[in-house]
Amino acid sequence: MTHSEGAGRTYVVTGSASGIGAATATMLRERGAEVIGCDLGDADIQADLSTPEGRRSLIDQVAARGPIDAVLAIAGGGRTGLLETNYFGAVATLEGLRPLLAQSAAPRAVVVSSTSSLAPADERVVQACLDGDEAAAIAYLDADPSIGGATGAYGIAKRALNRWVRRAASTPLWAGTGIALNAVAPGVVDTPAAAWIFANEDTRTAVETAAPQPFGGFPGHPEWVAELICWLAGAGNRFVTGQIIFADGGAETALIGDQHWR
Question: Residue 229: which of 113, 122, 150 has the closest Cα?
């Protein structure tokens, strides 16, 4: 995405108040785009994506502002409401704004996943997410908090999100209406949501050892991820859809190697 390509385009960015969302919103504005920032506070639209009411509020407020060209579902992270925000909030944002997005001449959608999606996850919870059964997914986790393993509900949410993107992207509702739908999966990035990793040296070392980032270092910078998001969401992306692109300094490669191609 060039420094002028954003001109004339309107982007909805959730999670715009901090981290990757803030870096993306800033980058888009610097490149001439209009940005509708959405977050819990300090944003054009304030809404809580962990609740059905908040999701409806966001969609209604965006719709009231008129045409849009791209939706960047970046909101997530945190230590509470992980499944609700990172999966159900993200999908509700994308599906709710899809009809408005389809009116653009070059509609694009990007959702942020994570390398945590690579961790083993309880298939019952993942399937409940894909079925749209939020109550069942939460009930599984409440009944057995250990079900999430090392990455907890966050990793499960991101794994389900990857699968949703792969299922939805090529369908008539998305590719069929000209909307490119992709996911960007960052590694560990220096954001407020990841601050708990750096608060303790033992935790930092354990996380870095478990998911090394040989290219770029540990942690990464939000702007590095934002650059990729901006390109995928730009009009210049004419042929990429349905991809889970790991922006992680090589962590995904280090963890799983070439297993997809065997």
Answer: 113
